Every structure is written in structure tokens, then in C-alpha cells.
Amino acid sequence: MAGRQFGLFPEPGTELGPEAGPELAKAAREAIGVLDLAAADVRTERAWSADGLACEEVSWDVGFGPRTHAYVLRPADAGDAVLPGVVALHCHAGMKWAGKEKIADPPYGPSPEVVRLREAIYGGLAWAGELARRGFTVLAHDVFTWGSRRFPLGDAQGDAYDEAAGLHEQVVAKHCTVLGTSYAGVVAGEDLAAAAYLRSRPDTGPVGCAGLSGGGMRAVMLGAFDAEVAAVASVAMISSYRDLLDEGYLARHTWMLYPPGLSRLCDLPDLAACAAPRPLLVWYGEHDEILPLTGMRRAHAMIERHYGHRHAPGGYTGIFGDAGHSFGRQAQERVFRWLARHLIMEEGTAWR
């Protein structure tokens, strides 16, 4: 009934939907209440070298809550060279005790919970470090409700904390909505601040972003809301809302995927295509356990049409991989090569 009354999700072939571009991005940003934040009072907390990487832990203040902590990873032999940058966006995965550590190694090594997660969805790798070794400045930061930005929930730690945080997420989402923003709007605001910080570094050139699942949603929002993000890679996240609804997948995802008011404006693939004409890669897992294949195929067709309408048909790369809901080694290789192709230095050549 609501879908019919509000004209949501028109039948395939009847219309393209809203034009994906700056106006839609602006309207979506307002609808979901993206916070205007900045990374203030940036500090270097420590530095170390490991496995061919020069690593820093930095922190900053976004104006509320505990300080955001982040890892900056670069090849150990890069010196002061200006390298292309990537904001590496950690996933949700029902794990909030850890944030950045899911994809980047701390100096003390990963926890058993993180090792288990990486084996399940990341091919056993800390992919932010793997990407940095290929000649990038990679920023992996905690975001609202994860890691250094998590809520105190009694004395719970590790798996016990993650179980409690799963129940707490609806409370966070309700508070965000009442305060005029949304869970997605707070997360997007913090990611925008992180991307601006990475661009401000003298050792970093053009900046892109990449992420899996919840990180893929974050990548889509970052690409839509920050025109200076040069390339966007979203892995195992994009489906039409229509198919998530019709095929019973809605309850399996984070509140971040459903910011109030967004579906009145557009479908999720429309938001993803707001990156056009900038390069966009979407990886679809053909055996994804929590996304319908019909929705992924619909999303792919919608994004292709949007990029065609923006006269940038070559800007979009859609890949259907023989994989589930994961960012395994095969997908990482494809995404890393794609990022290397699109994130080039100002003088026209990559660092290596």
C-alpha cells in the first residue's frame, strides 16, 4: 500500500527513476541527515613498522563521543613519496568490539575473534595492509558505534560485547532519528571527515574508497556525498530495495541500510550511481546469502542505465563473482587492480 501510494520502486521498463547526480545526492544527504563533521585536533598516537609497511595510529575529534582512532598504512620503502590514497571502510559483520582491526593489523596483532572473521569473509587477510603494500596510502578508521567509537555496554568485551551491541543498534537508530539525523547519516558524516583528513595529508594524492557489506554501503554514501572521492568500490552490498523487500531479506541487514526517507527519493542503486561520471565498481556475489540475486541483477541494470544517461558508460564496472557475502582473495585482486588503474598521481603515473 505504501509503495503504491508513494510511487516507490516502479515496474522495470516504466521509467529510469530519479536522475542520479548532484541534485539527487544533495536531496539524499538532506533526507538522511548527514552530519557536517571534521577531523579536528589530529594526533599521532604511535608509529611502527611491520611486514613491509610503515604504520601510524592517528586519532581525531569529531565533536562528540570518544576520539576516533585510525591506522594509516604505507609501503615501508615509500619514504615521503606522494601515493594515491584509499579510505578502507570496515564492515559491520555483527562485530562492533573491533572496527578498523577487522581489515588492518594493530601492532599487537589481531584478536582471535578478528582472525575468525577474516577467515570467514576476507580470505584470511587484513586487506587494508595488502592494498597499502601495492603503493597506496590506506586509511582504516573506526566509525560511530565501532572500535574506539563504540558505546560502553557494561563490562562486556569481545563476542559478549558484539551480542549486546547487536541488540543496542535499534536503540542507537531510534535516537539518531529523533535527533534529526539517522544511523547512516552519522556514519556518513564521520566517513566524510575521514576522507577529508586523508586528502589533507602531504603524502597522499587522489583518494578513493572501498568496503565490504556495511563498508560497501559506506562507500556508496561517501561516493555520493563527496565529489572529491575519485573512485568508489562497493563489495557485496548493492541490491534493489524492491527485491530485498519482496524476497524477505530486509531483516538480515543493519539499520544503516535503511535511513528514514531515502526510499521516498530513490532506490539504493540510484544512490550508488550518484558517483557518476566518476569510476564506480560494484562486486556482486552470485551466491550471496543475504542479498537476492534478482536484486543484484536489477541494481546492475539500473546503474548501467544511469551511467549511460550521464554519458559515462565506461565509468561503471559491475562484476558478478562466484562468491558469497565476502571480499575474498579473488575479489580483492580485482578491486585492487581496478583502484590502481583509476587512482593515479597528478603527473599521470602511479607510484609503482
TrEMBL record:
InterPro entries: AB_hydrolase_fold, FrsA_esterase. Residues 1-20 are annotated as: Disordered. Belongs to the AB hydrolase superfamily. This is Prolyl oligopeptidase family serine peptidase.
